[in-house]
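Cross-check.
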Amino acid sequence: MTIKRQMVISNVRTVLVTIFGLFLVTFVLGIVMNTMRGVNFEEERAMREMVRQEMENGYQGPRIFGPIFIVFFVALSVAFISFINNLLNYRLVKNIIRPLQPLSEGVRQIHDNNLGFRISYQNDDEYRPICDAFNEMAVRLEESAAQKRQDEENRRELLAGISHDLRTPLTSIKGYIEGLETGVASMPEIREQYLTAIKNKAVDMEYIIERLFLFSKLDMNEFPLTLRRVPLMQVIADMVEEVAREYDQRGLTIHIAETRRDVFVLIDTLWLHNVFINILENSVRYKKTDRASMEISADTVNNAVFLRLADNGPGVSAEAIPKLFDVFYRADPSRNIKGSGLGLAISKKIIERMGGDIHAELPKEGGLAIIIRLPIVEDAQQ
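Predicted model, tokenized:
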């Protein structure tokens, strides 16, 4: 039932109660007045008999004025009380309906996809929590819409990246097969070279698909991690010792700065190794000189350790920093550098699954620094 209809019903009830009350008051008032005047009932009886006789004789003089006056007085009283009651109810209805107008406008704006609309309501009454709840809902809808647009953009970039990274080896495979079919590779040595190239391109495609599958599993939280409490820098030192020679041969020197070795974190060492390799691979691929270096250090702040891996390579532009961990993003797409474009995106998912976060910075001395934050695990949490 609408508020207006409720008020109409309330007015009708008020009028009926008022009429009944007026008649009741008039009746009681008459009894009281007669009692106060000390009316002689014998005289009253004689007067009523006289009136009866006069009416039988056809006389209807001014005595009718009394009942008419009473009816007029009652009607006037009812009209006055109804007017005052309706006036008060009108103001009440106006006060109830006025706050509904901005709410109605807000709903219309949201319906028209104007998610930035906010209700400005200053009165401290029952409508204030409703308006605040509406504004909070609008904020969440705006954030959800922005996230949806970002997801759609990421999906388009993902499809474009997949198409690009798979098209290149497929084109090469197609060219080698045509060479074998047309007899261009007629000599056994050349045929062997073509077959080897086809196999290598197929391996590249398999690698891209496996990385994409891994990213999707991590994105859906369907990839299990085995978390253990370990000393972080000791684990990093072991990883460096394992791969230092290989990367040195590829032109990247790795150095670990002196730091605490008694900082414990809860991680999956296998997947941290995956993150570590992804960062090293980026430094090797994008170095502009024959030799490059990477320095690894760690600092503890409050209850977290910040692992910093900084190289002295060409770095990236400031605009590229926020996008480095997007799927299939490359800071310089014009470079013909082998890579799936998923390494840092996968690294971000892994670190987040271990309760940390990862971001990139541009050091003042040049190059690129990747910073990984992981929560410290105290002895009591073993």
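The chain is about 60% helix and 10% strand. The longest strand covers residues 292-301. Passed to J.P. for a second look.
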